[in-house]
Structure formats: C-alpha cells, structure tokens
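Journal club side-thread
Mid-discussion, someone asked how the predicted structure for our own chain would compare to the paper's figures. Pasting it here so we can look after the session.
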Amino acid sequence: MAYTYIWEYRVRADREPDFRREYGPDGAWVKLFRQAPGYVSTQLYRDRDDPLRFLTVDTWESEAAHQEFRRRFADAFAKLDAACEALTLRETPLGHFDGIGAIW
C-alpha cells in the first residue's frame, strides 16, 4: 500500500523561483529521494488564489521504505533542509496518508 505525506509551504516572495527549483521535479529534494529504494514520486502544487502557498505530495511504496530512507539519508536530509530553510516563511505538515486507490 502506498504511503504519502503532504506538506504546506508559505514561500518568501523574493525566493519563489528558488523554491520552485529546489522542490520541483528536477530539484534537490527529488534527487535525494531518488537515491532511496521505495521512492515513487513527488508532486509540487501552487495555490491558484495564493501564489506563495505550495504543497508537496511525496509518495513512497510503503511507510517502511520512507523510514529506511530517513534513517539512511538522515545527514543529507538535514543538510538540505537547513539549506532550504531560507526559502520559506512557514512549513506545515498536513498529514500522512495510505493509498486506497485512484478514482477517475
């Protein structure tokens, strides 16, 4: 069963291009995640009504795969997190979700 977590970001207006670069599909976060077995995907969303509000949706094959990534890559994660801290005003975890299935 897929494991997904979602974060909300309030981005600094003068750092919005940098944020999109680091958190986007070819950004530093995705490059780090791709090094770990069990990583599935990341989607980056921007709020249509508030262009400085973003969501990231990170999906892993399982919660265990994500936990193993966090264990194995703890130092790299912490270093990247610190480097990206200046890009945002606020980061808020919105929750952890289990995949049930897509309805289209």
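Post-session note: The radius of gyration is 14 Å.
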